[in-house]
Specification:
alpha+beta; Aminopeptidase; eight-stranded mixed sheet; 8 strands; globular; binds coenzyme A
């Protein structure tokens, strides 16, 4: 797979446009990555300053490749970032990867993320030729667990990184 970085894969669904991350998203990235509710089950350091967020964005943009896809979720017609979704941790000759996602709290409970994840799974399967997608989630993260189960991800009975709080889900195409 040779990804043409000039042509970032913009994805569209009924309500959403998934576009490339840009430096102009720094305020929304800061809000998302410093939100206590969103970070509750995520194993990451919260963004502390707008500069951190800008650095995070630069790092993503520089590292976008055939092993990192990072989409900004927007409502079609509104360019504002409401969430993000990414494919990363490619392995197995690029046939396997992991999906990660987060959505602003005021946009949750409307089926927005499942709509976005469905589209990314379709892209992964049909365009990238991915055969297996993993998703890691905290055992108490009910919203994420529900979403994965609705998409037919199966919970694996394996220990992850010696952390009994983390559950691995897998979808095979
Ligand atoms: C995980 C997360 C993205 C789930 O968001 P969400 O909005 O609950 O997810 P969905 O898109 O699947 O929406 C499902 C809800 O929308 C409701 N809904 C409303 N309209 C809908 C529609 N048209 N289609 C589908 N569901 C719809 C569903 O009934 C469901 O509500 P319920 O949970 O009360 O049953 C969100 O909780 C989040 O960002 N969490 C913080 C980050 C995180 O934990 N990420 C996961 C790391 S692995």
């Amino acid at each position: 797979m040779n990804r043409d970085l000039q042509n970032f894969p913009i994805l569209r669904t009924e309500r959403l446009t998934l576009r490339k991350l840009s430096k102009k998203d720094y305020q929304e990235i800061f809000q998302l990555r410093s939100d206590k509710e969103i970070n509750k089950f995520l194993d990451r350091k919260p963004s502390k300053t707008l500069e951190h967020s800008l650095k995070f964005i630069s790092n993503i943009i520089e590292n976008e490749s055939d092993t990192l896809f990072y989409w900004v979720i927007t409502k079609t017609g509104e360019d504002k970032l409401i969430g993000t979704i990414c494919l990363f941790e490619f392995s197995g000759n690029l046939k396997k990867c992991e999906v990660g996602y987060e959505l602003r709290t005021d946009n949750q409970g409307q089926g927005i993320m499942i709509e976005a994840v469905r589209e990314v799974l379709e892209y992964a399967m049909t365009t990238l030729g991915i055969k297996t997608i993993n998703a890691r989630t905290h055992k108490d993260n009910q919203s994420s667990t529900k979403l994965l189960e609705k998409l037919n991800f199966k919970k694996l009975d394996v220990a992850i990184e010696n952390n009994s709080n983390v559950v691995l889900f897998r979808l095979n195409f």
